[in-house]
From TrEMBL:
Region Disordered: start-end pairs: 37-59
Taxonomic placement: Bacteria, Bacillati, Bacillota, Bacilli, Bacillales
Organism: Neobacillus pocheonensis
Gene that this polypeptide is encoded by: sspH
Comp. bias (Polar residues): 47-59
Xref: HAMAP family: SspH
Primary location class: other
Pfam families: SspH (PF08141)
Locations listed in the record: Spore core
Alphabetical list of NCBIfam families matching this protein: PRK03174.1, SASP_H
Superkingdom, natural source: Bacteria
Induction remarks: Expressed only in the forespore compartment of sporulating cells.
Protein name (Swiss-Prot/TrEMBL): Small, acid-soluble spore protein H
Family: Belongs to the SspH family.
Keywords, in A-Z order: Sporulation
Length: 59
């Protein structure tokens, strides 16, 4: 995924089906400058991490 698409998903009111390493995630924030996104698994909102948007997969 590219940073622009990740940004669109993070701002959309519609929940997109996005995964990181096979786990469905929620994109909280995208840093366009670094190409990183702050994410968390859907069932673990307190388990936040910063990952490269290129590692995110949209189903």
């Amino acid at each position: 995924m590219d940073a622009q698409r990740a940004q669109e998903i993070s701002h959309s009111p519609v929940m997109a089906n996005v995964s990181f390493n096979g786990t469905r995630i929620y994109i909280e924030h995208v840093d366009q400058q670094t190409g990183n996104a702050t994410i968390h698994p859907l069932d673990e909102p307190s388990n936040k991490q910063s990952v490269s948007v290129s590692s995110l997969m949209e189903q």
